[in-house]
UniProtKB/TrEMBL annotation:
InterPro entries: DUF2357 (IPR018633). Residues 62-198 form the DUF2357 domain. This is DUF2357 domain-containing protein. Pfam families: DUF2357. It comes from Pseudoalteromonas piscicida.
Length: 1259
């Protein structure tokens, strides 16, 4: 074979002429066949004409099925034919209707025909003989005038003509080539049109194209723009021919590389990691985003690694320990093993590649592919209705009268992030998926989860496009899980309704019962009117039962004897206890494999994926499915037992005896429960799409061709009434409707809705079902009449259309038409979508030590020196210790009055004057005794100076005792500064603590410790003083002495946190850094898991602690947060239920409710957690947020007004967290904390404007 670089080719036409040259034919044919092969793999962007990205499995499938070496030369696509294909339509359009321009010319025109004159006409007349116009025109019947004509001589047409002339030359070269003679009719028609147009006189008048830059027409006109972009390619044909000639070895190596990979991929044992494929058109290069990796699973052997690389025209393939190199030599292609031994050699020719690839396969695999790994997606012929079941791993299709089958079309898409580009990947033919940070994977779990992600929308459109290509635009019935609400499938329905002539959703529960009706089991069943069927299904997160009631229609019995006249009535799905699909998957797989597939594949899909789809982690590790996984999955499903009571309760609600109840499962996650009779368990027979036969064979015998009726789920929103949000139902207790595609059904609404004044628009959240699950949808009202000047009461018109893009239509009409500000407004059903930035509560200001010298809380006007205040309190504690230990602290002394003379004053009270060795005379009066006894000689007293300067005795008690008043004066004076200073983790170990303050504090701590833990002295200490000293030490948290910490641990170990312990623990926890604090927290978390009062008290403790240390809540692990939330939701539900029963709740109950709401507010701050699994729990779409939102709204509805009244009137009911917020007047009866929680939990506008101004501690 001659070297292509030495061929004397100057123009692209020489490539065609070379086909008739025996010496150059091989080189030319190789260029053409390689280019045809490459073009066949590409799909081109219609705007840019550049190749779009593809994916590995699809490219390999196309290579395996494309037999380019068997094509006739005339059938090959090359660079020129590709240009013609992309520009053909534009050329024909311009040939028929080219752009023109107006041209002004001066000609001699008969006077009667003159329409336009100008200055040039006047100048010509002035030169004619004659004294006036008449005389000047008398000499001739014509004058020089302006004539307007159209011309094709525009810049864009000059390029177009130049473009056609170049095309004509190439066309003629192809036609003159004998080897391409078979294609002459193909180009004759276009060539003849071009030649005819070029021969036109107007076209001949078009000038030469000399401009290098395009004008606006060439850049913006849709047809001329095509000409411009194609001209750019056409002018490079000569240059690219030389490039192809120069890079012949490189291009042939590329072809060999991909042919080998495609051949190996046909083996069922070979799994290759899916990834995007990028094409470089000019260079004929195919590149991947990542290195190509694979595994080969041979029977009885461990998996072998498959690596294939292309580098500098050298193809290197490694399978396990086998290594082959395919090397280009001067005239041959050699196959060499790892030792350098040549195993095979072939002439360097395109025609020899097939034999080369087969030999490489034999050396590596040892056998030909037994069965193709990928199956070509063949189009479905015919025009009948099709039943489709969408799946992540396959799409099942059924036409009436034919056997159902699974196509390789999958609702499985990936989006790869690479160099700031997002590449979509269709995984329908994939054998291995890499899951990780750089890839976003979309499956049916996303499709059925009410998700509104933009990638999901792209995936839906791509899937529907592929489905339409597969089955054509025929009538379509598609199966939908019952647990998916209609509002959540809007994107899917819109795309299907656009693509197909009649797209009808069919609930899977109805499909399963129709399928059962065609079986022998149904024939033997004694079915009666009102029999209840529970259809079981599982979503990723929940287990559901769908109640379906059999209704026997007498009119159908004769028409449908084989179906026994049964019409089904479907009720909304209900969540039931039991493990969900994803929970069972987690139990079945190891942690690493589960973390990869979590949220992607359901339990049933994991069952199907075993052996057909491999998983690769982000770091390239292959995560093999465990051996005997299918058996393990089956065993785990058996353990997923259902609770009989839930089914009994639902059957009682339908007034159906349980012996008339049957159950059928749509999922492998649920097996027959032990408590159910065998006859009552219906086995699913066949694929659900097989119900198409039942539908098509019997639809003519039922009204509108519908075999069931639907009970619409409750649909409600929240609206403000008397300052409190309450439920407003759009759909509730509506009679069953016949779901006829396209038929609008009116729904009566008696209750009126009030639109409040002053709002630019109205956006109302939607709740679905009896559990009022918050949907991701809302209704939005917009009108030029908004904002309204007054509250407007509206009548509502609601209708429902089955299968429509948006099934509900809601119109607001003013009740009073006279002087109404608007006539009617139709609600727009919007998707709230994912709010990228959701606000979380801020933590109040943290004060530094220097701030306490001049502290102001914003309530008291005068700043205070808290450190000086506390120093005085520390001195009091030391003084108490000195008195208790010695009986004399300099301010309170103990004396013996025996021998002192007592006398009676003028009021009849007893007095004496006692001579003290240090103070001198001390006046003692009966009125200063707490309990006077003249025979009590040993007494303790406070000495104070009178106005006259004499010493007097005050607060006289039995010797060694403290006065009663000191118990209360101490507690009221030290708590505020202690709670304020020892807050937010402040400690005596901080560097900025003033030295004097630190020393006095340490003395006080030592004194309190001695008083509490010196047994001989503790007995004389009053209970109130002992309790206050304990509280004082607990306020110190990290500075607390170990004696007090041990006491707390001993007390909490008893499991009873009532009494003083409930007031001490919240402050002792502090930052939870010390070992004893961690031990306290560990025990406290156990108590949180209990039910009843102990759990409630534990939550109250956590609530107080959470607002005393900014990082307190961030110390919890994921499991702990889940634990707290579960207990908190139960406690809030208990409070909500019990407060409804009790008309007069005590302040203690209201305070406990407030503590739990404050704890919830603190937990929402975990949105800012560095742990992704923790922060994800508090996103707007999470189950947690939905659950707490529901209970908070119930509490607001049931108790919001009462709580607000208590906060306003009762001093004993206080909220610790103080807010600065802009609460509208319409929410005047809603407590601040419930209003703030509502905004944070729903993500509504205004949450980011809330400021937590402070926390009031009142221990």
């Amino acid at each position: 074979m001659s070297e292509l670089t030495y061929l004397d080719w100057r123009e692209f036409e020489d490539l065609y002429y070379a086909l008739d040259d025996q010496n150059a034919r091989g080189d030319a044919e190789q260029i053409l066949r390689l280019r045809d092969w490459f073009i066949g793999l590409c799909s081109f962007d219609p705007l840019t004409s550049l190749p779009e990205s593809s994916n590995l499995s699809l490219v390999l499938q196309n290579i395996a099925s494309n037999r380019v070496e068997e094509k006739e030369l005339s059938q090959l696509n090359d660079r020129f034919s590709k240009i013609i294909q992309q520009v053909d339509l534009a050329v024909n359009e311009i040939l028929f209707n080219p752009r023109e321009k107006m041209v002004r010319e001066h000609r001699f025109v008969p006077v009667p025909k003159v329409k336009h004159v100008d200055s040039k006409t006047i100048q010509w007349l002035s030169r004619q003989p004659g004294r006036n116009l008449r005389e000047k025109m008398a000499s001739s019947s014509k004058i020089l005038a302006v004539v307007k004509n159209t011309s094709l001589d525009t810049s864009e047409n000059r390029l177009f003509k130049h473009f056609l002339l170049r095309i004509e030359r190439v066309f003629l070269a192809r036609i003159e080539t004998q080897s391409l003679v078979a294609e002459q009719p193909l180009y004759e028609e276009l060539l003849s049109r071009i030649q005819y147009w070029l021969a036109q006189p107007d076209v001949k008048g078009i000038g030469y194209w000399r401009s290098l830059s395009p004008n606006n027409v060439l850049l913006r006109d849709k047809h001329y723009r095509k000409i411009w972009s194609s001209w750019q390619e056409l002018r490079k044909l000569d240059e690219t021919l030389l490039l192809d000639s120069k890079n012949s070895d490189q291009q042939l190596s590329t072809y060999i590389f991909w042919k080998i990979l495609a051949y190996l991929s046909q083996h069922k044992e070979v799994k290759l990691v899916e990834q995007p494929i990028l094409f470089k058109y000019d260079q004929l290069e195919i590149t991947t985003v990542a290195l190509i990796e694979g595994r080969v699973y041979l029977t009885g052997q461990p998996p072998h690694k498959l690596i294939i690389r292309l580098n500098n025209n050298l193809v290197r393939v490694q399978l396990g320990k086998k290594i082959l190199q395919i090397k280009m030599v001067s005239r041959t292609i050699d196959v060499i093993d790892h030792s350098g031994t040549a195993l095979a050699s072939y002439m360097k020719s395109f025609s020899k590649v097939e034999r080369l690839v087969a030999e490489v396969n034999r050396l590596l695999m040892g056998h030909e592919p037994n069965s193709l790994q990928q199956t070509t997606i063949n189009k479905l012929v015919g025009h009948g209705s099709v039943n489709v079941e969408i799946g992540s791993l396959n799409t099942r299709i059924k036409t009436a009268g034919k056997k159902s089958y699974a196509t390789p079309l999958r609702f499985l898409r990936q989006f790869w992030q690479h160099r700031d580009e997002n590449y979509p990947v269709d995984c329908s033919l994939s054998t291995a998926l890499q899951l990780g940070h750089d890839t976003e994977t979309i499956t049916c779990n996303h499709l059925w989860s009410n998700n509104n992600d933009s990638m999901l929308s792209v995936s839906i459109d791509s899937y529907v496009h592929s489905l339409k290509n597969l089955i054509g635009a025929r009538p379509l019935t598609y199966l939908v899980p019952d647990y998916v609400n209609e509002l959540g499938t809007e994107q899917l329905r819109r795309s299907l309704n656009l693509a197909f002539s009649d797209a009808r959703p069919l609930p899977m529960s109805i499909a399963s019962l129709l399928l059962w009706q065609r079986g022998k089991s149904f024939e033997k069943t004694d079915i009666r009117d009102g029999d209840l069927f529970f259809i079981l299904d599982s979503s990723a997160d929940n287990l559901y039962m769908i109640p379906v009631v059999a209704k026997i229609q007498d009119s159908y019995k004769k028409r449908l004897p084989e179906m026994k006249g049964v019409i089904w009535e479907r009720h909304p799905p209900l969540r039931i206890s039991g493990s969900s699909s994803m929970e069972l998957v987690e139990k079945s797989l190891n942690k690493e494999l589960f973390s990869a597939v979590e949220g992607l594949l359901s339990f049933d899909e994991v069952f199907e994926a075993v052996g057909s789809l491999s998983i690769v982690s982000n770091d390239g590790k292959w995560l093999d499915w465990p051996k005997s996984l299918k058996e393990k999955l089956t065993d785990i499903a058996k353990s997923n037992q259902l609770i009989k009571g839930e089914f009994l309760a639902e059957s009682r609600r339908h007034a159906v005896s349980f012996d008339r109840v049957r159950m059928l499962s749509l999922t492998r996650t649920v097996k027959k429960p032990k408590w159910l009779e065998p006859w009552a368990w219906l086995n699913k027979s066949g694929s659900l799409v097989d119900c198409e036969d039942v539908i098509q064979n019997n639809m003519h015998f039922v009204d509108d061709g519908i075999f069931w009726r639907d009970h619409l789920p409750q649909l409600s929103t929240r609206t403000v009434v008397d300052g409190i949000e309450r439920d407003f139902f759009f759909v509730k207790d509506v009679p069953p409707i016949q779901p006829v595609r396209g038929k609008e059904i009116s729904i009566e609404l008696d209750e009126k809705f009030v639109l409040s004044s002053g709002q630019n628009y109205y956006e109302l959240p939607l709740f679905l079902g009896t559990s009022k699950e918050r949907t991701k949808h809302s209704i939005r009202l917009e009108s030029q009449a908004f904002p309204l000047t007054k509250n407007t009461e509206c009548l509502l018109e609601l209708s429902y259309t089955y299968g429509a893009d948006q099934p509900y239509k809601l119109i607001f009409i003013p009740n009073e038409r006279v002087n109404a500000e608007f006539r009617r407004v139709e609600a727009r059903w919007t998707t709230s979508g994912n709010k990228a930035e959701v606000s979380s509560p801020t933590y109040p200001r943290i004060y530094a030590w220097e701030d306490f010298k001049n502290y102001s809380d914003g309530v008291k006007r005068e700043p205070q020196d808290l450190l000086d205040w506390l120093e005085r309190e520390f001195e009091k504690i030391v003084a108490i210790r000195d008195f208790v230990f010695s009986g004399d602290n300099g301010k309170r002394i103990t004396i013996n009055t025996r021998g002192s003379e007592w006398f009676t004053d003028r009021n009849g009270s007893r007095c004496c004057k006692f001579q003290h060795p240090r103070y001198g005379e001390i006046f003692i009066h009966q009125s200063n005794y707490e309990d006077f006894d003249s025979c009590q000689y040993e007494i303790s007293l406070d000495i104070v100076r009178s106005n006259k300067g004499n010493w007097q005795a005050r607060s006289i008690t039995e010797a060694g005792l403290l006065p009663k008043e000191s118990k209360y004066v101490f507690s009221n004076s030290y708590r505020f500064p202690m709670l304020t200073v020892w807050n937010n983790g402040n400690s005596l170990s901080d560097q900025l603590v003033p030295q004097k303050f630190k020393e006095l504090a340490q003395q006080a701590v030592k004194a309190a410790t001695q008083l509490l833990f010196n047994r001989s002295q503790r007995e004389d200490l009053p209970f109130e003083i002992e309790r206050e000293l304990q509280q004082f030490l607990c306020y110190l948290h990290g500075d607390m002495p170990i004696e007090m910490a041990n006491r707390l641990l001993a007390e909490i170990d008893k499991g009873d946190i009532r009494g003083s312990l409930a007031y001490q623990l919240p402050y002792a926890l502090g930052t939870v850094h010390a070992d004893w604090q961690k031990s306290l927290m560990k025990i406290l978390m156990k108590l949180v898991g209990n039910r009843g009062l102990s759990a409630s008290k534990a939550l109250d403790i956590l609530s107080i602690a959470a607002w005393r240390e900014p990082y307190f809540i961030f110390g919890f692990k994921q499991k702990q947060v889940e634990h707290i939330l579960d207990s908190l939701i139960n406690a809030l539900q208990f409070d909500n239920d019990t407060l409804k029963i009790s008309d007069k709740a005590k302040p203690l109950r209201w305070n406990s409710l407030l503590r739990k709401l404050e704890l919830l507010l603190a937990l929402i701050r975990l949105r800012d957690s560095d742990e992704p699994e923790v922060s994800k729990m508090f996103t707007l779409e999470s189950k947690t947020v939905n659950a707490v939102t529901k209970i908070v709204e119930e509490i607001n509805t049931n108790h919001g007004a009462k709580l607000n009244k208590q906060l306003a009137q009762a001093r004993a009911v206080k909220s610790r967290v103080k807010f600065e917020l802009n609460k509208p007047d319409t929410m005047k009866n809603t407590p601040d904390i419930l209003y703030a929680l509502r905004l944070y939990l729903t993500g509504e506008t205004g949450a980011n404007l809330i400021t937590i101004s402070g926390v009031v501690d009142d221990a």
